[in-house]
Amino acid sequence: MARAKRPAPEILDPQMLLGAYAQGYFPMAEARTDKDVFWLNPDRRGIIPLDGFHLPKRLARRMRSSDWRMTVDTAFARVIQACAEADRQGGKTWINPLIERSYAQLHALGHAHSVEVWDGEVLIGGLYGVSLGAAFFGESMFSLTTDASKVALVHLVARMRAGGFKLLDTQFITDHLTQFGAVEVGRAAYQDLLREAVDGDADFYVLGGAGAAVLAGTVLQLTTQTS
After folding, report:
1. Please, which residues have CB within 8 angstroms of residue 112's CB and are 6 or more apart in sequence?
2. Cys bridge to 205: 73, 173, 185, 209, which one at CB 3.0-4.6 A?
3. pLDDT digits (tens, 9 = 90+) for 140-164
4. Structural domains of the chain, ranges and CATH numbers in brackets
5. Would the pTM of this model clear 0.85, i.e. be above it?
6. Where does residue 102 rank: exposed (0-12), middle (13-18), buried (19+ CB within 10 A)?
7. Which helix (H) or strand (E) holds 32?
8. Which residues make beta-bridge pairs with 89?
């Protein structure tokens, strides 16, 4: 007798999702059209040590002369949708509608955040992730203009340092991230970092809440002051 297939959920339970992050797991979809997710807990984990963050000189020069504005949590749905579009290769992305709905719920509960980069009134880059205790789990980023996602990352790090965060989890390592000091750690070492961070307290809004805008040059100053 064939086993009945479990119907895909309409949304991932927020407490279950946060509990998974606290144990080192995170969800992904096989494709944009997939209705469910699978769970990952990699043997090797990417992190950016906040005290070892490296700001490339070329990017610092770009930020110093830029009039881009940065905000947080003003366009979460647009950011996650743009990340899905940017990640798509051959029609595939790991961000499906179930993930979009589930993280929108986490955002409404104050556990998922977006960082937006604006050129005038145009959204040109950003990132989103999950915060839990003093940990931030970066999920995805996008850039419609050269360096926009990198500037969003610099803003995130400045905000995390100022707010007392202890762990910036990037999940995997890419060339895009290694230039900022990202490293890989084993599962046991990651679990130690994770437990300490999840049990800690941090304030994502210490540099201003949703809608508070800062210029790229101001974020650069904040980053160099806390280096």
Report:
1. 76, 103, 104, 106, 128, 129, 130, 131
2. 209
3. 999 999 999 999 999 999 999 999 9
4. 14-225 (3.40.630.70)
5. yes
6. buried
7. none
8. 92
